[in-house]
Amino acid sequence: MTVRASEASAESPLDPAARPPEPEAAKKGRREPRRAHWLDRAGWYEPREAGARSTTRQAEALNLALSSPPTTHRGLILGTDRLSGQLVCHDPFIAYADKLVSAPNVAVVGDVGKGKSSLLKTWGTLRQLLLAGRRVVVLDKKTQAGQGEYTPLARAVGAPSIRFTVDGTGSRLNVLDPVIALGEPGRPTGAAGRPTGQMMLLRAVLAEALGRGVTEREGKALRIALLAATADARERGRIPVIGDVVHHLVHPAEDAADGIGVPRTELREWGFDPAFALERMIEEDLAGLVDEETSPDVQLDHPSGLVHFDISSLPVEGPALRIVMTVINTWQTNMLARRSEQLMQTVNVVEEGWHVAQGALGRVFQRNTKLARGLGLATLAGFHHVSDLPAGSAARALLQEAETVFVFGQSLRSDALACAELYDLPPGTEETIMGLGRGTFLAKIGSEAPLLVQHVRSPTEVRLTETDAALTGRP
């Protein structure tokens, strides 16, 4: 039986440690004993494992500087690290639980055609549905074959598309839906820690209609009209709508004027401009969209976990798109606040975040997004160029506050520099951003160094997310 060095007795002459130390004089002029090869083969000196055949290319993985995992294994697959070829995984909720980020919101930036939509549709939507207790709500603005781009995904998972149109044939979402509550007794509407209420949302819609901010007197008249419309509708056993607010702006009650110490005619004058602006909105820009009771199909629950709001038919010009996006966002956050005890995580995908870039509507959107932690809500917003967003705008704030950022290719140096400066990327990163090909992006997660990632899609995901049919002529 072979005896290894670790098992040899202390008296063994082969164990140098067992020999008594020799005088220095005795060591002089004498060569060190040579290591016996046959004892090496027998394993006397140290344990030896059998070698493994390999190639130089395969052995590159032994270089730990290259093969260290780029991210934690916890999360959903984003793609592969272009440096090491290893999988890159991330999930905003899991990263928050692991203290990698302090907020779950995600920003995706890049030129058209670089792969932003594919990432949002796969990692941001389909793969999210694989996790238990996960819901995905999509605001789908981009059009494909006369419908929203996410329609094929919704069909694939068996989810209906909630479609908003300007011809009155689509779904409706009431600005005064009871879900968007007035606020708790003794607590002002829009108080910190709660989603935007009806009054703040009405102010934002009215500011869009007027093209300016709401004055103090107009705001007072609007609040009185809202309270009166709500009470009147409750007595009649129905849900209030904007038309009711318009009526009470033009025809305020005598006791309402007495309550603030002004003549009824004066209170009526305060409400004239808001009334006419709201009336024009619901008869023209917002006709059939937010001026009636909420449609039964507008729900936040579906067995598939996907809620698809198709707003692709709404015109980009004018206020309709911005208002509908903000009303949907406000309705959703209030609904989540009411269900906070359910502990269900919701991913909100906004393909075209620049539509809520500025103004009162943008501030409402930004306010609701700030409640992500309390609502279990992660907003994934896509943008084309940082330089397109005004400083101080709501969309710029969304970009700045996101702690998970995916930067796709930017052809202009000014756009690449804006990304590098906004996210404090290493010097010279703008050159990398300008050279990124389709499907390749820089992933900046929390305070970690950016990763160069190649997005990977399965054949099914490729089929469901490809949007080049109109250009290639292939279905």
TrEMBL record:
Top-level division of the source organism's lineage: Bacteria
Region Disordered: what ranges?
Answer: 1-34
What protein name is recorded for this chain?
ATP/GTP-binding protein
